[in-house]
Amino acid sequence: MKKLILTLIAALGVVAGAQAAEGGIAWDKAPVRTNDLASLQNGAKLFVNYCLNCHSAAFMRYNRLTDIGLTEQQIKDNLLFSTEKVGETMKANIDPKQAKEWFGANPPDLTLAARALAGHGGTGADYLYTYLRTFYRDESKATGWNNLAFPSVGMPNVLWELQGERRPVYTKVEQHGHETDVISGWEQVKPGTLAPLQFDQAVGDLVNYMQWMAEPAQNTRVRVGVWVLLFLVMSLVFVWRLNAAYWKDVK
How far is CA 157 from the centre of its chain? Predict the structure, then answer.
């Protein structure tokens, strides 16, 4: 329980940054498809390779990935890179003290991030989808990176090899009698290993997995809920007919 409380506190710290940035840019709609097993599997691979180095998902066990179509052997062969067991939770191996020195704070646990980061701009998945796609080079920052959705964030762009290096293009517009710089697009400085559309799809898969990870039973919950509602509708028909038969001779 103590660990869960600490995780929520850390997530709320990120929420504050997310909501502070909400007035800066609009959040893009995330293509969440938690029933798409291929997308979830690719998202799990990206999460383990690019996120789990610094961030933990301490309330998710590796063997729970069997729910998205992976076998335990596939998990061992492709997603476990050290001494973890398939039944263990997803914990980062980074030293918290070193992480605080490098990034200014210990990276928060991401198990519930897709649910905790919701705000006026959209869902937590929308924020993550926007955040992961709006990094740009900024040599004035310690990490060499900045982010439009979360200005001055301490996290570097861990997906830069896939995305390449970009910088925002601004256009001056007049608002309330003052000229303001508004982002109008991106300029690709260095290409990545993925084309822009492929990168957006990869980030969509990663966010899709994080949305599923935040509540692995959500699809089962929805499916059971539909059957319960259908049962109640059918029961209503029988109850209505029974009531009519019971009172038909009453004048």
Answer: 15
